[in-house]
Amino acid sequence: MELKQLYTDLILEYNKDKTNKRKIENPTVHEHGHNPSCGDDIDIEVKIEDGVIKDLAYTGTGCAISQASTAMMAELLQGRTVEEGIRLCRLFLDMIRGKVTDDESLEELEAAITLKDISKMPVRVKCATLGWHTLEMALTRIEKQLSEQK
């Protein structure tokens, strides 16, 4: 199977995956993201306990790339610490921006590494990064609150 087909199949599979496309009851943090250039809209909800992402879900509408990318993110970050979540969000964003390109550094992104070539498609970059950027904002806010409580 050629890489382009694998990429397409994976995006379609994650776009259909509704495991984490839902609301969370009493989330610790909620963040809304919007891409005005294409109309993608996303709401990220996170439940944090003891500095760990216990649940991560999203709702919203958008193209297959934005929905698949957000589904990959939700799957990857369940059970991670807030700090690790922020680091992985930044790694993904750096990958899409073409700043980190070696596969060894990107392996920990798991399925999301398949979106690497979106960096070569500027009109799709915002689609792929919407959920990740929105979550990074939410987690950064939580990290600040956690450090103020110490």
UniProtKB/TrEMBL annotation:
Residues 7-88 form the NIF system FeS cluster assembly NifU N-terminal domain. CDD domains: IscU_like (cd06664). GO terms for biological process: iron-sulfur cluster assembly. It comes from the Bacteria. SUPFAM superfamilies: SufE/NifU (SSF82649). Gene3D superfamilies: 3.90.1010.10. Signal peptide: none annotated. It holds the Pfam family NifU_N. One of its GO terms (molecular function) is iron-sulfur cluster binding. InterPro entries: NIF_FeS_clus_asmbl_NifU_N. NCBIfam families: SUF_scaf_2 (TIGR01994). PANTHER family: IRON-SULFUR CLUSTER ASSEMBLY ENZYME NIFU HOMOLOG. Belongs to the NifU family. This is Iron-sulfur cluster assembly scaffold protein NifU. It comes from Dialister hominis.
